[in-house]
Amino acid sequence: MTRVEEILEKGSLGKEDIVALLSAGEDDSVAIFRKAREVKKGSVGNKVYFRGLIEYSNYCAKNCFYCGIRSGNSRYARYEMLDDEVLESARYAWENRFASIVLQSGERDDEAFIAKIERLIHRMQEMTRHELHITLSLGEQKMETYRRWFQAGAHRYLLRIEDANPGLYRKLHPNDQRHSYRGRVEALKALRATGYQVGTGVMIGLPFQTVSDLADDLIFFRDLDIDMVGMGPYIEHKDTPLYEHRDRLLPLGDRLRLSLKMVAVLRIMMKDINIAATTALQAIDPIGREKALQAGANVIMPNLTPVKYRQDYLLYENKPCLDEEAEHCKSCLETRIQMAGDTIAYGEWGDSKHFEKRKNPHE
Ligand code: SAM
Ligand code: SF4
User: pLDDT tens digits, residue range 198-223?
Assistant: First the structure.
């Protein structure tokens, strides 16, 4: 038995085990992916849940060093979708039985923004007779804001920790109150206390990031007992400060392989959570997301943002599907998901099984 095979037999993985799995070569990785597929089949099954992604606005009060829509980047025209456009995208998701949408945007905490999101959540719920599940990805907010949006009808919230190592987090963000690691962790706890299904995640292949950091990221998810994870490769953007460190980056292909291994090891560690096959994987490989499904992921987020806004929501370079309307993306996805051996769970909310068990421990 190889060392990797021995580790895969264990009931619980320690940090050294995780580092060994993430460092495994091509041959050993085959066994890791096989194991992750088995675990996925036995715990969450071979269903894939769709979450229609609506990139609501690229206005952002923050200035993260890696992100193309940071406030310091003056190259993009700033936009905010009209209410009717948001409702149209939500209607498309609902009528096509996606059952869930994700409303994402740059971070703002002014009352006008908070109230607008609250109103939009109400209107989407009314329009879809409460059949649509709403996930928010709107950054760090006060507990009161999280409560207002939850009471309006949002169910899930995604807030990536970006990197669980506080030292590396500091290198990736300006050193001020708005960008504090502690604040990010507190926000995740506030979301949990409010009642959301909580998702977090990291970027993989960042400059300065080590395999030991990535192992700590996976342990962070486990310690936080998180319900959902969305993580994917970091992809450089030339109009950001982090671009200056591009000579430290792994080649894109290696970042993809490492991301797939992260998905597989996480599935082995946290059997019943939802794991997204993220868009950044597709920016490196046209079938990157389908590869992630085969490595243990079970959620995909087709882009429902109106095409006219997509050029201005470029978090990183080579972002895919910039000129494809939703319908086209959906049909190409269907074929590829079938080829990956999964079925799309149309009309199912696809709540994280982990969350359901946490809510009803005796069922
Ligand atoms: N503003 C909210 C926030 O930061 O939580 C939500 C929107 S933000 C654009 C969503 C995610 O995009 C971030 O959590 C970050 O991980 C990811 N992102 C930003 N720049 C990226 C890059 N250059 N490569 C890969 N992912 C990136
Ligand atoms: Fe703003 Fe989010 Fe980009 Fe940071 S990652 S600059 S908070 S949109």
Answer: 999 999 999 999 999 999 999 999 99
Total-model pTM: 0.96
Tokens 């009161």 locate to: 144
- The verdict on the CB of residue 138 being under 6 Å from ligand 2 is no
Residues with CB under 6 A from ligand 1: 66-67, 104, 106-107, 137, 139, 159-160, 162, 203, 234-235, 237, 280, 315-316
Residue 75 contacts residue 324 (beta carbons within 8 Å): no
In a 10 Å sphere around its CB, with 0-12 CB exposed, 13-18 middle and 19+ buried, how is residue 71 labelled? middle
Strand locations in the chain (E): 47-50, 52-57, 100-105, 133-137, 156-158, 197-200, 203-204, 228-233, 274-277, 299-300, 343-344
**pLDDT tens-digit readout, 288-302:** 999 999 999 999 999
Dmax over CA atoms of the chain, in Å, equals 61
